[in-house]
């Protein structure tokens, strides 16, 4: 029996489970910072732009690490990157328990961001290589990306419970420990690519890239019009996501909702994104990855309009439903387009670079949103900017030209 079989089951599915657990931690980091927001604001008297600057530091560290880990995982086993992530990010998050100044806050979250970088590029590129040319590749990718949504659904209310039960300092410690445990266990299961690529199965969008045996010239791929367009779209979506993940909770409490309700809604966005990610593959079967991506972005834009009139509990849950589903549709579509246009040989680096550009663009979105709030006393302008940006990205997704040839 092959080392890549276990009791007749393709080992790739165990890799999917490990990668799902890894992306689960993104729900713990990206989605849950807003739950800490009011506690930090009240404890230190910081402005909202200052509190947001800690998240900016996290995103800058994350972007740097994304590029490095994405490039290296194309060449080496994913396991060492996951172990390093567990150690570095777990420590950075836990150290936030000790903060007494905004400088410490930024430093510790920067360290956490550097450690958390591999939790996106490594699992997605790894699972796509394992299922390259195999049936149900789209399902495998959808399951892995759904980990983020499940993480948000679980960790946002859990962290709120930690804060209310033990205080925000101990909550940071517990989050760091959980991060370390989840990634440590996942590192025992995850493995590199199979010994030989599978034959192309011809299952439409489920075959995530064209079969190729050569590694394309990455520098030429990075300046291809298709890659630039995809990166722009990612940047817009990530920018909006980061601003919302940080400011949804304070906005909801500003209009009279409880922090527990806001934290639950934040988690539900991730939860509702799960069916969206699964449905994305089904939709793309009929209309293609580009139109699927455009539909997701358009739905996100329309959902943000709802926040302009938010005033009751049922309204924030409606927003969580519509935005969450559309956000979920977007995620596999943007990854599917990358592999469709450029194949799988340099996929880790392409995911790393495109996502890192988006993270850097989005790194300052929470601080900018906080500054606009501090200046104007409301989030109205912030929400209008989000709506316009998402509509532009949706149009760009539709207008991108057809499939490019690989550049060798």
Outline the structure in words.
This protein has 408 residues and is mainly α. It has one domain (10-207, 219-399): MFS general substrate transporter like domains (Growth Hormone, Chain: A). Helices cover 77% and strands 1% of the residues. It is built from 15 helices and two strands. The chain has a two-stranded antiparallel ribbon. It is globular. Mean pLDDT is 82; it is low at 197-213 and 403-408.
Strand order of the largest sheet: 1-2
The CATH fourth-level homologous superfamily: MFS general substrate transporter like domains
Number of strands: 2
* Helix vs. strand class: mainly alpha
Order of helices and strands: EEHHHHHHHHHHHHHHH
Low-confidence stretches: 197-213, 403-408
How many domains? The number is 1
Q: What share of residues is helical?
A: over 70%
Please work out how many helical segments DSSP would assign.
Answer: 15
Output mean pLDDT. Answer: 82
Radius of gyration: 20 Å
Could you say what the CATH architecture is? Up-down Bundle
Distance between the first and last residues' Cα? 37 Å
Largest sheet: 2 strands, antiparallel
Looking at the structure, what is the overall shape?
A: globular
CATH topology: Growth Hormone, Chain: A
Strand content: under 5%
Classified by CATH, the class is Mainly Alpha
């Amino acid at each position: 029996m092959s080392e890549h079989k276990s009791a007749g089951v393709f080992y790739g599915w165990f890799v999917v489970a490990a990668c799902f657990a890894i992306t689960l931690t993104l729900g713990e980091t990206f989605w849950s910072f807003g739950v800490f927001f009011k506690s930090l604001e009240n404890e230190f008297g910081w402005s909202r732009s200052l509190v947001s600057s800690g998240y900016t530091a996290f995103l800058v560290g994350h972007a740097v690490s994304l590029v490095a880990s994405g490039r290296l995982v194309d060449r080496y086993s994913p396991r060492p990157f996951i172990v390093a992530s567990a150690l570095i990010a777990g420590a950075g998050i836990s150290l936030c328990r000790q903060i007494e100044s905004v400088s410490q806050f930024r430093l510790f979250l920067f360290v956490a961001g550097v450690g958390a970088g591999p939790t996106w590029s490594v699992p997605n590129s790894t699972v796509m290589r394992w299922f390259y040319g195999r049936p149900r590749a789209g399902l495998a990718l959808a399951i892995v990306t759904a980990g983020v949504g499940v993480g948000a659904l679980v960790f946002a209310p859990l962290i709120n419970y930690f804060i209310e039960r033990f205080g925000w300092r101990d909550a940071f410690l517990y989050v760091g420990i959980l991060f370390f445990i989840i990634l440590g266990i996942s590192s025992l299961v995850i493995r590199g690519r199979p010994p030989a690529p599978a034959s192309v199965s011809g299952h439409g969008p489920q075959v995530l890239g064209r079969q190729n045996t050569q590694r394309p010239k990455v520098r030429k791929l990075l300046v291809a019009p298709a890659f630039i367009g995809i990166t722009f779209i990612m940047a817009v979506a990530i920018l909006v996501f980061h601003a919302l993940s940080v400011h949804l909770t304070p906005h909801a409490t500003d209009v009279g909702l409880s922090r527990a309700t806001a934290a639950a809604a934040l988690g539900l966005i991730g939860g509702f994104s799960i069916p969206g990610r699964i449905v994305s593959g089904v939709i793309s079967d009929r209309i293609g990855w580009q139109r699927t991506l455009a539909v997701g972005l358009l739905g996100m834009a329309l959902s943000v309009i709802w926040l302009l009139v938010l005033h009751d509990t049922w309204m924030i849950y409606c927003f969580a439903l519509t935005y969450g589903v559309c956000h979920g549709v977007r995620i596999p579509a943007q990854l599917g387009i990358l592999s469709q246009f450029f194949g799988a040989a340099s996929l880790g680096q392409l995911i790393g670079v495109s996502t890192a550009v988006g993270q850097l663009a989005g790194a300052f979105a929470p601080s900018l949103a906080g500054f606009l709030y501090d200046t104007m006393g409301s989030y109205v302008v912030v929400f209008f900017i989000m709506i316009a940006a998402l509509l532009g990205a949706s149009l760009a997704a539709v207008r991108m030209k057809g499939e490019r040839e690989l550049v060798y």
